[in-house]
Amino acid sequence: MNAEAAGSKARSFGSGHLAYWDGCSQMSLSQALSPPVIQCVELGLEGRLKAGRERVVGQLSLLVSTRSAYRHPVGRRFLEAIEKRTKIAGDLHDRIGTAVQEAVMNSLLHGNLHIDTQARESLEGLNELHESIAHELERPDVAHCMIQLDALWSTKMLYVIVRDSGVGYPRDRLPRRGEPDACAARSSGRGLSILTAVCDRVAVIEGGRAIRLGFRL
């Protein structure tokens, strides 16, 4: 058995399948998310399932650690997995990819790591940001905090929900469509202006610990 196959061991899960990802590469993640899997869980997070705290919300679900979400483009691989199950045409692929990856990074940096990214506007600030991330990820309790992605779709709409393990933030901090980037950044600090620009619908839910992105198919 090759490394990729070993990293995507699957067992039956209700009427579908549950797969485990080894957290080693985006290639093994792509394989772990292949149909007919409906839920993919990074190894080490199995306790979430055993405790019954996390469940499949839609037609495809992915649970990863903060460390893996930082090291790998999990949002992009998740979108590829969705495309194996429903058709996404034209520029919609790019819009969804941008939005999902942005939402994952927002959940990672602001939700789980509690890092202020305003300083990344300068080279010095960017270096300090990377140092802060590396320092936080050395803490096992932080590195293994969960980020969950769920997708559900119909013939008309696709929704992707990105959920973190943070404390959330007030719903009224979601910027209105058309709000200038600088203003939105000050009011939310979470890149929500990017999401409102590329998504057809954006909703902050679960007390700010999750964001639901909607796209017309």
What is the SS-derived class?
A: alpha+beta
Strand order of the largest sheet: 1-2-3-4-5-6-8-7
Rg? 17 Å
Q: Care to count the β-strands?
A: 8
Strand content: 15-25%
Q: Return the string of H and E elements.
A: HEEHEHEHHHHHEEHHEE
Major pleated sheet: 8 strands, mixed
Number of helices: 10
How far apart are the termini? 38 Å
Quick description:
The protein has 217 residues and is an alpha+beta fold. It contains ten helices and eight strands.
Describe the structure.
The chain has 217 residues and is α+β, with helices and mostly antiparallel strands. α5 packs antiparallel against α6 and α6 (92-112) packs antiparallel against α10 (192-198). An 8-stranded mixed sheet has the order 1-2-3-4-5-6-8-7. It is globular. Residues 1-8, 11-15 and 177-190 have low confidence and may be disordered. The termini are far apart. It has helices at residues 3-6, 26-32, 46-50, 66-71, 74-83, 92-112, 123-137, 140-143, 181-188, 192-198; strands spanning 10-13, 16-21, 37-42, 60-65, 146-153, 157-163, 201-205, 210-216. The protein contains 10 helices and 8 strands.
Ordered list of secondary-structure elements with their pairings:
Blueprint: H1 3-6, E1 10-13, E2 16-21, H2 26-32, E3 37-42, H3 46-50, E4 60-65, H4 66-71, H5 74-83, H6 92-112, H7 123-137, H8 140-143, E5 146-153, E6 157-163, H9 181-188, H10 192-198, E7 201-205, E8 210-216
Parallel strand pairs: 2-3, 3-4
Antiparallel strand pairs: 1-2, 4-5, 5-6, 6-8, 7-8
